[in-house]
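Final report, Chapter 2: Outcomes

The project's central promise was a pipeline that accepts a single protein chain and returns its three-dimensional structure in a standardized token representation, suitable for archiving and comparison. That pipeline is now operational. To close this chapter, we reproduce one record exactly as it appears in the project archive, with the input sequence first and the structure output second.
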Amino acid sequence: MPFYEYCHDAANDHAGPGCKHCRDGFTVLEKLSAEPLDACPGCGGPVRRVISAPQVVSGKAHMHRPDNIEKHGFTQYRKIGKGVYEKTAGKGPGIITDD
């Protein structure tokens, strides 16, 4: 389900500027098949859906972040020299060598 942003529709409001909730804009999680809101849930004033940029995650680079690795119980090391590895995420020794 996508998030939709709404704001006060001043062009169709003859009663006033709306409440702080709709003047500042608000976000609603709705099904794709849902009809767009036409009234502010706070004051009942007219609102319109506005177009906003989607959040796109490309590839799997976000899965290699240290916090994601630790969350799933893995340990990650990076090579810092010949046969020497330094821990970057997770539990375990800080440095591993081939000694």
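Archive annotation: Strands lie at 3-8, 26-29, 47-50, 76-81, 84-89, 95-97.
This record, like all others produced under the grant, will remain available to the consortium after the project formally closes.
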